Every structure is written in C-alpha cells, then in structure tokens.
Amino acid sequence: MSVGMAAPRSVFACDSERSRGRLFQEPPSKTRSPFRRDCDRVIHSTAFRRLKYKTQVFVFHEGDHYRTRLTHSLEVAQIARALARQLGLDEDLTETLALAHDLGHPPFGHAGERALDACLQPHGGFDHNAQTLRVVTSLEHRYPEFDGLNLTWEALEGIVKHNGPLTERNGLAGGRYRDRGIPVAISEYNGKYDLELWSFASLEAQVAAIADDIAYDAHDIDDGLRAGLFTVDDLRVMPLTAEMIAEIDRRYPALDDDRRGAELVRELISCLIGAVISEARRRLEAAGPQSADDVRNLGNALIAFAADVARAEAEIKAFLKLRMYRHERVMRVMGEAEQILFDLFARYQNTPGDLPAEWLPPDGGDSETERARRIGNFIAGMTDRFALTEHQRLFDSTPDLR
Length: 402
Fold this sequence. Notes:
The chain is an all-alpha fold. The chain is built from 16 helices and no strands.
C-alpha cells in the first residue's frame, strides 16, 4: 500500500462502539463517537488551554516562535494521526492521547518536574504522567455529575500506559517504576477502575508515544537552530541528518540557512514517520493480532523504530541533550526556574493562607501529606507566566529567566 493512502480500518484497532465505557455512565452523544467525545473534552479542558504558556524548552517570553507545550501537543497529534491513518487505527482515540499526554506537566518543563518531585519526595514524589491522570479524573471541574473529564477506559489506559506496562502480571511495579513504585495517583485510581497496568496499551496509545518522540526530535532541532545554539552544519555529525543535509544542498545549492533548517526538519519528520510505518507493518504481520485485546496481551510493543533507525534517533537525542538541553544558557534559566518552584512550594507550606481560597481544605484540617499534594496540584497547574506572577507577589526578588 502507498504511504500516501489511508489504510482500511484494521481488526486490531480500538473500536469506539465496543469501548469498555466510562467510570460514570452517561447517555451516548447523538453526534459523536465515544472517542471523538473524549478528544473534544480534552480540547475544551482548562488544562489544555494552560499548555499555551507552559515551557517546552524555552520559557514563553523568550520568543514568540519557540514551541510551547500546546504547540508541541498539536504537532504530536498531527504526526500521530498520520501514523494512525496509515495503519488503519482509530484516529479520534489517537488524537485524544496525543493532545492529552502533557496535561500534567508543571510550568518550566522538565526543570519544573524535577523541582516538584524533590518537594514531594516525602509524600510520594511527582510524576507528570500520573499528574495527567489526576487532571482528567479529578482536577478538572467542568461537569455537574463528576469531577474530571470522565474519559473512556481506552483513553485512560492510553494516558497511563502509552510508554508500556507499569507492573508485572503479579502486580509488582515494573519498568521505570520498579524502584520507586507506582505513583499514588495511578495506584489509587486503578483501585477504583482497573486499567490493567500489567498489559501493553492499544496501538493508538503506542502511536501517540512514538509521535511524541518524532515531534520533539524535529521541533527541538528547529528551536535550537532558531536560538543559535547550533547550526545546520553542526548536525552533520550524525549520519542520518548528514545525509539529509547533503541531499538538501544538492537540490538547493543557494538556499539560506533558515530554509535549510526548515527543510531538514520536514525531511526528518517524513523519514521517521515512514520508518515507523514500515516497522509496524512488519511487526504486525509477524504477530498477527486479530483484536485490540490481542495487542494488549502480546507482551511487546508493536509500534517502534527498527534497530538501525532507533540508533539514529538516539543519536539525535544525545546531540540535543549535549548542545541544547545542557547548554549553559538553557541550564541557567532552568536552574532559576526550579528555584521559583522551590520558593513557592515552601511558601504555601509555611503560609497556607497565601493559597487561593478554593485550594484550602473546607474544614482547615488535612494531613501533612494531603496538604503537600494539594500544593503540588496547584503548582503543577500553573503556567510559566502565573508562576512568575505569583513569585513576584510573594517575594521581593524574582529571576527574569532570560
């Protein structure tokens, strides 16, 4: 089949008409499938709008053209839908998972996550994936009959397990949670609504996860070039991008660097999408799943890069870590951003009255852990802009973060 043509619906795709349903029963929509309804609820959520002013790499006021969590999520959704279309998967569920995957990220990107994790260590730590689940199951207050968005089981499963199973079949924590245990938000919710943490997620969730990798590989190169942290020719150190740059220069010998960079980003996205489709089709043919549940029970991921492409993609991540994420300018700003969140957390702990009234317990009596988690939820929901404003309100001096 041509990569440009949409595949017919696959037997291993999730089927919204056979969804396992929602925790709180609701009448079906007259105009939308259950997965389309999920996607619309994510788009209209408060947490989704806040992504506009949450850092990807550069703080929002450093430039209008850098990615934010919102534009990143939109790019992930575009790539994820392209993959789902080629593989015959449910595009609405795929889009839901792509748009929702970063709803739990705190302000200031991974620096903010490190700060909140440190602050909450005595109380279970902070995990942005668990926070996303908390957002869509309890922290959004938009509906009269339930907290959260009351998403389908398939959407919740994909949010929690898009990077693979969280536990062994016997329930013991596994994978990246082996040492620290399952985050409290996930384990508590799973006790109410079993998301089968031991199994792999649907192909739609696996597609959303790899689309995230493709998107940030490409757009972080784009943003790094725009910021002057490296040049197009610096990217020749990697065979994959070196080959692309050589071909671009052959076809357009007089092209300026801005357009060379843009063309490289387009070529990289196309290359990685094509590589995922080829490898997924190979794995699907070998495994032969006949349903979405077959996918869950296979015991390995079906959406992945082939080994050679995985090595090339890892080289891109290593380059970006060295030349961008660890760049002195970025590290300085992120260090100051971490301190802002440390300051805010300590202030709210010591002076709870500085929190908005709706974030105080109604009876004034909560445990130390409950109070710490409530403060963590409040800070995690902040945008970069609001965190800076709050710091300026509560402290005499606030870093400029530039």
